From TrEMBL:
Domain Helicase ATP-binding span(s) in chain numbering: 37-208
Organism: Variovorax ureilyticus
Family: Belongs to the DEAD box helicase family.
Sequence motif: Q motif, positions: 6-34
Full protein: residues contained: 1 to 214 of 468
Gene responsible for this protein: dbpA
Signal peptide: none
Official protein name in the record: ATP-dependent RNA helicase DbpA
Superkingdom, taxonomy of origin: Bacteria
Residue span(s) of domain DEAD-box RNA helicase Q: 6-34
């Protein structure tokens, strides 16, 4: 299934990032990575659909890291996830992908976790925030999270977030992001609400679907 086109080395990634991917044991891109990384690294908005376990986190993770300036200590990427468990997994994967770069700080902000620690983390600053829509909204309303420097917004597991009734929170968060940004939407399925999200919050998104192959 995989051929030379699935080699990470074909992507405009730094030598350190390529070496880190090799160390992580990522020898080849998965099909969703091979389909979504080239347009994502060109700055396109994407609606990417592929089943669970297909490597979607690295697809958006490498794209948001490519947009990031480590020397600018401000929140440049926000990843919205449906649950705390998924947000923790995304944070872990982004930290692994980022470990070859300069110190990149990732903060997780989810409901059901005490505010105090989250407020302290935000005061120390972060490059990347991963969290659930409700809690991210709380921080925006309190003024403890500033998205002025944001350049990448990721909606991960968008189908599940819609199932859980997060449309309005996602909409409110997206409205607080700078208009000039890249928006990447990842989903395992393609329910009707996704088109509404795309129409309201994405710019000419490229649609990518990778069918289950085995
Ligand atoms: P999804 O979000 O599509 O459900 P994940 O991003 O959680 O999938 O990835 C599933 C697993 O595959 C993770 O353990 C991840 O580390 C691993 N993985 C991702 N990309 C690659 C790759 N190119 N080569 C090998 N393993 C990978
Ligand atoms: Mg995932």
């Amino acid at each position: 299934m995989t051929g030379p086109a699935a080699d990470f080395a074909q992507l405009p990634l730094s030598p350190q990032t390529l070496a880190n991917l090799a160390q992580l044991g990522y020898a080849q891109m998965t099909p969703i990575q091979a389909a979504s990384l080239p347009p994502a690294l060109l700055g396109r908005d994407l609606i990417a659909q592929a089943k669970t376990g297909s490597g979607k986190t690295a697809a958006f993770g490498l794209a948001l890291l490519a947009n990031l300036n480590p020397r600018r200590f401000a929140v440049q990427a926000l990843v919205l996830c449906p649950t705390r468990e998924l947000a923790d997994q995304v944070t872990t994967e982004i930290r692994r992908l980022a470990r070859a770069e300069e110190n990149i700080k990732v903060v997780t902000l989810c409901g059901g976790v005490a505010m105090r620690g989250q407020l302290a983390s935000l005061e120390h600053g972060a490059h990347i925030v991963v969290g659930t829509p409700g809690r991210i909204m709380d921080h925006l309303e309190r003024g403890s999270l500033d998205l002025e420097a944001l350049n990448t917004l990721v909606l991960d597991e968008a189908d599940r977030m819609l199932d859980m009734g997060f449309f309005d929170d996602i909409a409110k968060v997206a409205r607080q992001c700078p208009a000039k940004r890249q928006t990447l939407l990842f989903s395992a399925t393609y329910p009707e609400g996704i088109e509404r999200l795309a129409a309201q919050f994405m710019k000419d998104p490229q649609q990518i679907t990778v069918q289950a192959q085995h």
